[in-house]
Amino acid sequence: MLGVLGGCSLLLSVLFLFLLYLIYTVVNMAYVRSLYNGIPSPPLDNFWYGHQVTMVAAKKDNTFLDVFGAWTKEYGSSIMVFASFRNILFTVDPNMFKVVTSDLNSFSKLDDLPNRSLFGQRIAGWNSVLTGGGHNWAIKRKVMSKFFAKANTSETFELCKPLIQNYVRSNLAGKVGKGQVIELHNEFSTIFSAYPAAVGLSGFDDPDTIGRNVSKILEMIPKQLGGKFSLTKLLFAVGKDKSETVDMVIEMRKRLKALTREKMQEIHSSDSAANHSDLLGLLIQANESCDFERDLLDEYVVDDILTIYLVMDNMVKQLASLFIFLESEQEVYRKMAREIRDFTLTDSSSLSQLRYTEQVLLESLRMAPALLRGTRLLKTPDETPSRIGPYNLASGTQIHFSQYLIHHNEQTWRDPKKFDPERWSNGFQPEPYTYMPFLAGPRGCLGKHFAMMTMKLTLVSILQKFELIPKLNKEKRPTIDQGMAVMRIRNNVDYELIPLPHPA
Ligand code: HEM
Question: Which amino acid residue places its CA nearest to atom 29 of ligand 1?
Answer without folding.
Answer: 447
